[in-house]
Amino acid sequence: MSQIDILAIGAHPDDVELSAAGTLLKHRSMGFTTGIIDLTQGELGSRGTKETRYEEAQAASEILGLTDRVNLKMADGFFEHSEENLRLIIEQIRRFKPQIVLLNAVSDRHPDHGKGSKLASEACFLAGLRRIETSWGGVAQEAHRPKFVYHYIQDRYLKPDFAIDVTEFVEQKFDSIKAYKTQFWDPSSSEPKTPISGEEFFEFLRGRMAEFGRSIGVRYAEGYTVERLIGVDSLLDLR
Description:
alpha/beta, Rossmann fold, 7-stranded mixed β-sheet, two-stranded antiparallel sheet, 6 helices, 9 strands, globular, deacetylase activity
């Protein structure tokens, strides 16, 4: 099993692709290893099934070039902030030992996003406490706390604390999103319309990235919020 440098966690399959795929693709091109943890199977979604969502997630993972992807199979819509669920995430953090973790938006239209964000953020902290005992494959795990925890921005607009230029990776990002064929625009689909299934949704995504990009002088960017003040070595590190 390989260590994962940058681990993204989402409440549902496709959360990460929609908001942070460009970031993962860019850093993979720089030599970093990347992975995703999905908290639920998205079984309450109006379109598709948990089985098709799983197949689509695997296809998206291939496009993103992930080192690993794990689904924790928590209850979609009903997962709780419990010791059991915290331990599930702690085990994966200690298993992959990421330095950077990307989490759901702190607040969003779907309540699972904010709920998953808080759950995973707390797990990142608790994973560093050595007196919390966990094991993987029958072997005791060492404590590990990620160095950085950032939150990607989803449906609801949040002012980012920083943004990453993903201009070169936008089309590949859209390829990973479109791997979820049951969830997005398909004129031949007879399934219910949802806030993300309309043809205009891709225009919204591109517009959001263009807005963040314009703010930092590039064409497209993905925005993030932080849990603590970011430090830099000098003013020259800022763009």
